Amino acid sequence: MEPKAELAEQGAEGHGLTMRASDQDRDVVLTRLRDAFAEGRLDDGEFDERTRAALVARTYKDLDGLLADLPTRQAGTAGPPAARRGPGRFAVALKSTVRRAGRWRVPSRYTAVVYKGSGWLDLRAAELTAPDTTIIAVAYKSRITLLVPPGVHVEMTGMGIIQGGGEDDLDFRVPLDAPTVHIRGIAYHGTIEVSTRPRAEIRRP
Q1: How far apart are CA 157 and CA 177, in angstroms?
Q2: Which domain holds residue 16?
Q3: Based on the domain organization, do 62 and 151 belong to the same domain?
Q4: CA angle 195, 193, 115 (to 5 degrees)
Q5: Confidence label for 11 from pLDDT (cuts 50, 70 and 90)
């Protein structure tokens, strides 16, 4: 059942849309928002704004409004295309670019090494295959940008890692049982930036 219809049905059982939403209800909406973002129905700003709103939503009405302009998926119809397999556990770029974005499966341990190039690892619409994911990023005279969804725990250790955006909050209203992304970074004459949204001056490769 499509998330919006499911929320409406649950809310109609004697309480209406003013009924308090649960963490599970929020997860349903977050999943639909990630699908819409991967399908190109939401841009970066809209996805970020709605995801944050879903994390702090209190009632079914709050959640329903976040899906109001998205298509209803009827029961029994095909869902979004399955995430592609891969791309494996390692990525190496020598004077070139590593780019992972959209719907991709992230293994429990993923390593990206960039030498005199650039890296773009976008996890916002990706499928995390484990509750704990470790990303190892090595940037030699390079810049690696790593985007994570607001609804996950983020732990950062290493050298040359910065948290992007003055208003970014990587632990914004994250449930205790949310997935955790561990970022282990080493940057030599380079930068590894971790954020929930791309900076305005950074364009996707």
Answers
A1: 21
A2: 3-66
A3: no
A4: 140
A5: very low
- Is the residue at 46 inside a domain? yes
Omega before 3 within 30 of 0, i.e. cis: no
CB-hemisphere CA count at 13 Å for 15? 13
What tokens does 71 get? 């298509």
Residues 97, 191 within the same domain: yes
pLDDT value at residue 73? 63
**Tokens 């293994």 found at:** 107
- Distance in angstroms (rounded) separating the CA atoms of residues 106 and 81: 16
- Structural tokens at position 167: 């208003």
8 Å CB contact between 121 and 142: no
| Token representation of residue 93 | 């770029």
pTM: 0.78
Say whether pLDDT at 59 is over 90. yes
